[in-house]
Amino acid sequence: MIIYKSVFTMANKYTFWKLISDKKIVIPIIQRDYAQGREGKEFVRKSFLEQLGKAIFENEPTELDFVYGTEKDGTMYPLDGQQRLTTLWLLHWFVAYKAGKLVEVKDTLKKFSYETRTSSREFCEKLCELEFTETCDIVTHITNQTWFFSRWKQDPTIQAMLRMLCGTNNSNSKDGEFIDGIEELFKGKYDFETYWRTMTLDYKITFNFLPMNTTELPISDDLYIKMNARGKDLTNFENFKAELVRWIYHEDNKQVWEGNINIDTKRANYVSAIDNEWTDIFWANGKSLGRVDELFFAFINRYFLNEYISSKTEDGKYLLNDKSPSNDNRYSYLMKDNKVAYTTLEIYPFWQDNKSFAKKLTKLETILNNISKSKCLNNKLFVPSWNNNFKFIPEYAKDEKDSYKLTTDDSGKNVNDIYTVSQVERIAFYAFCKYFYDGDFQDTSLKEWNRFIWNIISVSDDGLPFIRTIGRMQNAIELIDRIDTHSVYKSLEKQNTFENPSNCLQEQFNEEIEKAKQILYGNTDDLPTKPADWNDEKSGEWNWENAIIEIENFAFFEGTIRFLYYSESNKVDWSENNFIVKRNYAKSLFCEKDKYKSSMKTLMKYVPIGTWCDKTYSVDWESGSQWKRLLTDNKLTSHIDIFLKDVQGNRSNSTEEIEEFQRYFEHKYKDKNKGTYWILKDYERFDYVYTCYTNKMENASNDLVYPILPKRTTLLNECENKDDRFIVDDDFKVLVDGNYLYKGFRLKFTFKGNKFEWYQGNNVEYDVYLIENNEYKLKDSEAENDIDKYYCFNIDKNENANSFIQKLEDLIKEAYSNDISE
């Protein structure tokens, strides 16, 4: 639905008293119960009442966004704004009651009613007849009336109204007891005549009333459902939206928007778009549930998380780094998408000034406006062939029975679940936001951008997605930001390649540059033969772009094909004797998954034995991701080139040599408790590895092995033989050929009754920590490095059993010296 610009000339500025004086206000049946007074909404009430209090007591004007509604025969039916109108009605009723004006104004107040909720309607009418009595507990006074029925205590709207009147006993650590009730708001304040004049005569609390059943803006049943069928309780998104609107209209923020604009129109357009054009973006995915709140909220949280990750300080340092996420409340909050229980807007403006926050809001506005204009609502436009799960426009999650799933937010409230995103997909989300920030939707440019993005972010190392840390997300964003989203190939062509790529992201970026050049300038006479099943109508003409895309989407390649166009000497070669020969053979080698294993045994015959000792121990021969790692390994380029060109099978290594190679690093032993296991010699950076697999090296994985470190092994054997007070836990040692091998990155042992952990990381054999209550014993929680923060020490290169035991004794003495002296 689009609200035309002319509609804002129809909106009139109203106070609540002017609106109820001019029209009868009836809450229609389709509206939810009054929710601002519910339990769990203390902070919502606190924020709203603070805003109203400043207008009443400090004469600070406040504007409460738009109130939409239909009109018929002098009656207004709120479409959006029921919560605010109900609170304003209670506020006016309370002040009129306290000012002794209830008899005078009760007929006007009675013009506020509920369409079919008899108990709520009768309750409001009875309040208007309440005789004045001095009391400091208005709710007790009301519920003690003879006309107050006990069954009304079960009515959620009446209970919410009573709670809004009296508030609750709540506090937070910062402010102590805080105000979340109207009676609390006026505690110690007695000039109700003045307050009444301020509320009814002065335009201090206003909103824009927008009638929606006009020829310029016709009402529809679909719109009515969109605006109202969000569930009975206020959602996290509605609470977020309410605070955001208040921020936008706050007088202090009037000048923060950049550009030569009419600020009133700017703010009105922004607020209107939230409920109209932007809601339509998510409506296609939420219509079947009649709601979009979780989808909209997730999109906003994902946007702000990416802005947070990519933002830098004035000196060029990132606000967020790999060391901070676990301790960063803002990062933890935004990572949860729709599962976060909204509490405050303060989590979003992580910049120091409101102008920066307004800039981010303007960027979000541009993105959503361009998505809205493009009608680009089909998520299939944003995925590669190998990942159809990504949802750029969030979608509600379904279970195996095709039923919508529920989950709980941080407050324990049930919310509709949505499909989550991985770290890789968060970068895809960033990239497509960048596309719509840069310009409008164009079919060709979006396809090119989509291909480039997924090729870049799908890279992996050690069989895992490369983008799995904050730092690597930032690495990817830096590369993405170099490219013009609407002219990808021309932009790539102008980029310089990395001469010595430091990671697979840079390697893939180099590849995208080379492919862009081939697409732009490649000789069509050198094209591979068009596949027999190629469909020109469906896939387009057979040219270099489509030839490259066709092989990118093959098997496990997922956009990476440099092992096909690099020659033996590591030069770019798209010729028939190089690229096309290897392309055709690779398609026959990897046409079916169950062929991968036999292909690996074939590859082994081209690679020298010594090279294999560094490469194959962690390879799952059936894994496409592990194959991709081998094919793109720079140290194997010449061997891979020969392998993929040797269609006739002129292989170098013999079967006997391969068997000797297997014997070189495998040692079988029997663990009486666990069966048959293997010790693998020269496993990557470790001399030995104890693996819990029973099928030798074929399925070995870095995640499921225990390093066996020679220095540690020797030292621990010496200590156990030398001192019977030194005991390594049985779970961490294995008897092999009469000697103990010690396994684990975090090995635990006991000395003199004290628990210790020997932590090994990054192939450095050091760091022994004293353990207390299953945690490292703290020395100074404020210290930055472990040696000062915990009771621990480093292992010296020349450490022997005597010096090691002495260090343990010294550490115990240091840690418990106070206990000993006492």
Question: Mind explaining what this structure looks like?
Answer:
A hairpin with a 2-residue loop joins strand 20 and strand 21 (754-761). This protein is 43% helix and 14% strand. With 822 residues, it is of the alpha+beta class. Helix 3 (82-98) packs antiparallel against helix 4 (102-109). The strands form 7 sheets. The protein has a 6-stranded mixed β-sheet with strand order 1-8-3-4-2-5, sandwiched between helices.
Layout of helices and strands:
Blueprint: E1 12-14, H1 16-22, E2 24-27, H2 42-58, E3 62-72, E4 75-80, H3 82-98, H4 102-109, E5 112-114, H5 118-128, H6 138-143, H7 156-166, E6 171-172, E7 176-177, H8 182-185, H9 192-200, E8 205-211, H10 221-228, H11 236-249, H12 263-275, H13 277-286, H14 293-310, H15 329-334, H16 354-374, E9 406-408, E10 414-416, H17 423-438, H18 443-457, E11 460-461, E12 464-465, H19 470-480, H20 488-493, H21 504-521, H22 536-539, H23 544-552, H24 562-565, H25 576-589, H26 596-603, H27 609-615, H28 624-631, H29 637-645, H30 655-665, E13 666-671, E14 675-683, E15 686-691, E16 705-708, H31 710-722, E17 726-728, E18 733-736, E19 739-742, E20 746-751, E21 754-761, E22 764-772, E23 775-776, H32 786-789, E24 792-793, H33 801-815, H34 817-821
Parallel strand pairs: 2-4, 2-5, 3-8
Antiparallel strand pairs: 1-8, 3-4, 6-7, 9-10, 11-12, 13-14, 14-15, 15-16, 17-20, 18-19, 20-21, 21-22, 22-23, 22-24
